[in-house]
Specification:
It is a single chain. This protein is α+β, with helices and mostly antiparallel strands. The protein has one domain: Aminopeptidase. Helices cover 30% and strands 28% of the residues. It is built from four helices and seven strands. The protein is globular, with a radius of gyration of 14 Å. The N and C termini lie far apart (33 Å).
Length: 148
């Protein structure tokens, strides 16, 4: 099992395939990613932003990005966006690999990372990586303060 993390500068056909798998599970975040990328609304190109993918034998099996959090006025608050791993390749560390790459990239660029997830499984995933669940903050379910 050879996994390779890569920076995505555009949308390959692999993103569409992942989007179809996500849609089958009832998730629409990758449809939004594709739509926003194509329209230019979010191309992960502002300072500090990045979009990662993980490939296994040349096939895209996971994706996740980092944006300046659009819901907060502070430019040093990052937001993890569109993290998704194909169901057939879960539980082998792909999501953890993407999240850690985002965190490494974020150090020195952002003071903290935020995200929103409505699912218990995703909450448990992020909490295992040191994210703290929060309530009462609109569009934020978890936060992690970064070491500088």
């Amino acid at each position: 099992m050879s996994l390779e993390i890569i920076r995505l500068n555009g949308l390959s056909s692999g993103v569409q395939s992942l989007s179809e798998a996500a849609r089958a599970e009832g998730f629409t975040m990758l449809e939004r990613l594709i739509s926003n990328f194509r329209s230019g609304n979010n191309t992960f190109s502002r300072p500090g932003e990045i979009l990662f993918g993980v490939e296994q034998l040349g096939v895209l099996i996971g994706i996740g990005g980092l944006n300046i959090d659009p819901y907060f006025k502070e430019s040093r608050v990052g937001r993890i966006r569109h993290l998704y791993v194909h169901p057939s390749t879960r539980k082998i560390g792909v999501g953890r690999m993407i999240t850690k790459a985002i965190e490494v990239h974020a150090v020195g660029r952002f003071d903290k990372l935020q995200l929103f997830t409505p699912t218990r499984a995703a909450s448990e995933f992020y909490e295992a990586l040191g994210y703290v669940g929060v309530s009462g903050v609109e569009k934020v379910s978890h936060v992690k303060v970064l070491d500088s």
